[in-house]
Write a structure and sequence with these properties.
Length: 326
């Protein structure tokens, strides 16, 4: 069997996926027209040409500008439905979607509108393809903790629809410590906790995400290798890392896939998973991340099976719920 077909046939969970990062340029322009939103690019080709990022911030500037076309419940539904269709084709049986409410509420879009559209797509994906899903509300770390608390307040009536919280956006200069009280409150409310750390930020941010935020998974985490004691701890505690190889190359965290440290992380015994992050912007959905990484690093099928299994084990579904896929 070809590697692509093998990878697509592996049941897998996607655990690091920003739903706003699945906005393909064609949909961006269609929604801009439908909603009368002006975009800073003249065409689909022009926006694609702008996807030459030099770091995380250069991407985020474009990503937030693109997200401005998402206005109505139907927009969020169509966005997530299109993602689930691609995820299903890639063998995703379960997806835990990040969404950034503050990106939308700042433009006057109600949190409820976002949730209604996303949730309707989750229900539809379950009915059509049997894909399970969860929603993870991410706080933007470039904003204040107080603004995070205001967002949590807006989310309170909808807590039954949200499985957990995360922390994303500009990492450098915005350490986990800035959000310690907010995440403590989220944990009291029974929410799962994850956090981006060690993508561009130092290994100390990974330590603080674990110790101060009590993160159950680390999103990215690739800079852990700069601290051998931390690697030892991550192995001992089997903390899942949601690694996004194509994203890391696009954002210049690694110069190319052949120099990505995923193989090293895996060999060290870390609970590594492979994910797509913002696939519309980074050149590939989850199966392409598996295939390209395997080719670049010489990972075999046994390793890919282990990584897919890790993703299911690291998800927030119960052991009984994931048993059929393992
Ligand atoms: N890192 C931080 N914030 C983000 C990312 C990312 O990779 N994608 C979308 N928001
Ligand atoms: Zn991310």
């Amino acid at each position: 069997m070809e590697l692509e077909a093998y990878v697509r046939a592996l049941p897998k969970a996607e655990l690091h996926l920003h739903i706003e990062g699945t906005l393909e340029p064609e949909m961006m322009f269609a929604l801009a027209r439908r909603n009368g939103v002006a975009l800073p690019w003249a065409s689909v080709e022009a926006v694609r040409a702008a996807y030459a990022f030099t770091d995380l911030q250069s991407f985020l500037d474009l990503y937030y500008a693109g997200a401005a076309v998402l206005v109505r419940e139907q927009d969020f539904f169509e966005l997530a439905f299109a993602y689930f269709e691609r995820a299903h084709a890639d063998g995703v049986v379960h997806a835990e979607l990040f969404f950034d409410p503050q990106t939308h509420t700042a433009r006057g879009v109600a949190l409820e509108t976002v949730l209604d559209g996303l949730e309707r797509a989750c229900v539809e994906a379950r009915a059509r393809w049997g894909i399970g899903s969860r929603l993870i509300l991410c706080f933007l770390r470039h904003l204040s903790e107080e603004e995070g608390f205001a967002t949590l307040q807006q989310a309170l009536p909808h807590l039954s629809r949200i499985d957990g919280v995360g922390l994303d956006s500009s990492e450098r200069g915005h350490p986990p410590a800035k959000f310690a009280r907010l995440f403590a409150r989220c944990r009291e409310l029974g929410l799962h906790v994850v956090a981006h750390a060690g993508e561009e930020g130092p290994p100390a941010y990974i330590v603080d995400a674990l110790d101060l935020l009590k993160a159950e998974r680390i999103d990215h985490g690739v800079r852990c290798t700069e601290d051998p004691a931390l690697v030892g701890r991550l192995v001992r505690e089997q903390v899942p890392l949601t690694v996004c190889p194509l994203s890391n190359v696009k954002l210049c965290v690694f110069p190319d896939l052949a120099r990505h440290n995923l193989g090293q992380l895996f060999a060290a015994g870390l609970k590594v998973t492979i994910n797509s992050d913002d696939p519309a912007y980074f050149g590939g959905y989850v199966a392409k991340n598996y295939v390209d990484t395997a080719r670049a690093l010489g990972l075999g099928r046994a390793e890919l099976r282990r990584i897919a299994r890790n993703s299911l084990e690291a998800s927030f579904v119960s052991a009984a719920e994931r048993a059929p896929w393992l």
